[in-house]
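seq as requested:
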Amino acid sequence: MGNKSGGSARPIRVMQSFGAPRPTSNPYVHMLDDALAATPGVEHVRFDRRQALFGRLDAIQFHWPETLFGAGTGAKALARRAFAVALRARISLGRVAIIRTVHNVELPNDVAPWQRRYLEWVERRTDHRIVLNDLTELPEGAESTLIPHGHYREWFADVEKTDAAPGTLGFVGLVRRYKGVEDLIRVFRDTADVAPDLRLHIAGNPTSAGIADEVRESAKADGRIELDLRYLSEPDFARAVMGSSGIVLPYRFMHNSGTVLAALSLNRPVLVPRTAVNDALSAEVGRGWITMFDDELADSDLLAFAEAIRTLPEGEPDLSARDWDRAGVAHRDAFRRAIAHRRAGAR
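struct tokens:
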């Protein structure tokens, strides 16, 4: 990492809002961590509270700023709040640039009032935004760089390939309210008379005991539905995807979805809600890999999808624009723009 490779007097020093990735960390974090570590011209710093407050930094990149607050009550919660306030003071008084990767369109609402105000301050103070698709709406005049979410082909490369179970649709990933798993089960049950041999495999960890109970109660009336409600290791996740002929993701709201890209990286077609983002992704990856439904998911959508994927499209989805080596260089360029913006005296 010298002058020639980085193109500057010294590498820019950028801290991420995540620490050393753990086995349970989002694969996006793992892959970005590796990409930045391998990118010349960037001194990649994982999140550290001491470094954040007192270290030499050119910029901080936030992905999900609400993770600053963490979990816990009592003394731990007070300590996290004190750190957040101190970090705001350090950033406000210094020349540290803020880069925000816009994973989610809206700020979270399930936070304390002071936390919501803090997140709004981060939004105002952000010097540069990284968007994962070019349809993300941004504040007027906001500077941004498009860096598409990378694929998962290398991430799953060591998982032994398995054949799909014929006539099996799958849902894979965290079971959250907005993902519509309850709707999927209800609609799938309506196919019993016309498609008795169709199967549905739901694999993933529910985010609450209440959701888990609802899913189990709804699924028990249909013997064609198989549940695997637990935390999935990455190999388990990949096997659940590959064991299905197609993946159904009936999200009530979908903007950026790592699960869609994971399924495509494993060469499985997906059924998703029709959105402008999914329309663009369908055109990017090639015909036959993405099927969309309009409004609410219906049994006719499931039946048509199941019929369409009896034969997989030829070749593989085109994910060439989502290589991680490109992402590292693109992040470096975005960091430089953010730092230049901050040092020019922008407020």
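The radius of gyration is 22 Å.
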